[in-house]
Amino acid sequence: MEVDLFIPCFVDQIEPQIGENLVAILEHVGCTVHYNPKQTCCGQPQFNSGYTKETQELARKFLSDFEGDRVIVSPGGSCTGFIKRRYASLFDDPKEKERAENLSNRIYDICDFLVNVLHITNLGATFNGKVTVHDSCSALREYGLTTEPRTLLQNVKGLEIVEMEESTTCCGFGGTFSIKQKDISSAMVEQNVRFAVESGAEYITGTEFSCLMNIKAYVERNNINIKPIHIVNILSNFEHV
């Protein structure tokens, strides 16, 4: 299968290794990967801040950057969920709305793509350690990702999933929320990390890098002994040929 690769801005700028590992996974399962280097922001930050016109401009560019009928795969539910659930509502013009709906129907988070499109649940990966899972708001509530991440992790050799209390509670990031409501955000991430540590996990993983970025900042600032790691970096831990 030929697929297009969509890498969110923060992954590209802060931890591009996630994108590289995503390519490794896709090629490992037999996909031919296409990457358009002209791709930019999907418009979610602008949309969440109320800048509709600017969001529409970025959405139009995104539609042009991913013209065609190939499946689009991304390493996260935040931007992907926004595109799937919100893009069509941005446009009144029937042709633009149709283009947005078409794209919305062919963009996938990697976990959803592997489990529900390719029907692959075991990548032959190995990862030694106890891992707890944070279900990000965007992946769970916006995108609709539920059992898929754990289905894939259960088949990673050497990995033990240990559930933490309130794994579906927000970590406090929420984009600009963490800036505008710093005190509330800090209390939320403190609780999230405390629950993760109390589970006995050595690692905390998830599908959404923005959440893990927020958690990592708190962990490092407070010298807490748990390691945030994106699920792609776990699933790609197989022998590359």
Protein model, in words:
By secondary structure, the chain is α/β, with parallel strands linked by helices. The protein folds into 2 domains: 2-115, no CATH class; 121-235, 3-Layer(aba) Sandwich (Rossmann fold). Helix content is 49%, strand content 15%. The protein has 13 helices and 8 strands. The chain has helices spanning 9-14, 17-28, 44-48, 52-65, 77-86, 94-104, 110-117, 137-143, 148-153, 177-180, 182-198, 209-221, 231-235, and strands at 2-5, 32-34, 71-74, 107-109, 126-133, 157-161, 203-206, 227-230. Strands 2-1-3-4 form a 4-stranded parallel beta sheet, sandwiched between helices. A 4-stranded parallel beta sheet has the order 6-5-7-8. α12 (209-221) links the parallel β7 (203-206) and β8 (227-230). α5 (77-86) packs parallel to α8 and α11 packs across α12. The relative contact order is 0.15.
Which structural class fits the helix and strand makeup? alpha/beta
- Rg, rounded, reads 18 Å
Helix content: 40-55%
The third-level CATH topology of the largest domain is Rossmann fold
Number of helices: 13
Report the major sheet: 4 strands, parallel
Task: Tell the overall outline.
Answer: globular
CATH class call of the largest domain: Alpha Beta
Largest beta sheet: strand ordering: 2-1-3-4
Averaging pLDDT over every residue, what do you get? 93
Number of strands: 8
Number of domains: 2
